[in-house]
Design brief:
mainly alpha, globular
């Protein structure tokens, strides 16, 4: 990854993180949704490619501001979603919808990507990619401890 040497610590961390994510997706007797698995894998590969190329851009062109590049790439990606948005505009003007849009747009997307992009130049692409795997763990902790959700038994069982 951008000429970086992968360490034993990175390998152990990544294997552990990937194993944890795989356990979260383990089938619970209903089978595996092949299309969902393919879409999730494609998403992960795209995210990893973004990380590697953003790190390469930051290394080769230190004057480039990655948060700006990230914002432009998200804007271009959002343009492709306009047809779906235009098809369902009935609830867009409601206060709850506008609040959700503001939260998702500003906090969970803009702030998260700004922090992610700002950290890439000073962190290895391997570490960034591995740390990104902590997102499902963080979401699980927030769900349980902040939203008081309960983990169902099927998530806690290992199937052999």
């Amino acid at each position: 990854m951008c000429g970086e040497r992968l360490t034993r610590t990175w390998l152990i961390s990544t294997v552990t993180a990937v194993t944890g994510c795989a356990l979260l997706m383990a089938p619970t007797g209903t089978g595996v949704d092949a299309l969902g698995l393919l879409a999730a894998t494609a998403s992960g590969v795209c995210y990893d490619l973004y990380t590697v190329y953003a790190k390469q851009l930051a290394t080769d062109h230190p004057g480039v501001r990655l948060p700006t590049v990230s914002a432009l790439s998200l804007l271009l990606g959002a343009v492709r979603l306009v047809p779906w948005m235009a098809a369902d505009t009935a609830t867009l003007g409601q206060p709850a919808t506008l609040g959700l849009i503001a939260w998702l747009g500003l906090a969970t997307t803009a702030l998260a990507y700004w922090l992610f992009s700002a950290g890439i130049p000073s962190t290895s692409a391997a570490a960034v990619g591995t740390l990104s795997l902590a997102e499902p763990l963080a979401a699980s902790f927030l769900g349980v401890f902040v939203l008081h959700e309960h983990l169902c038994a099927s998530l806690l069982q290992l199937q052999v």
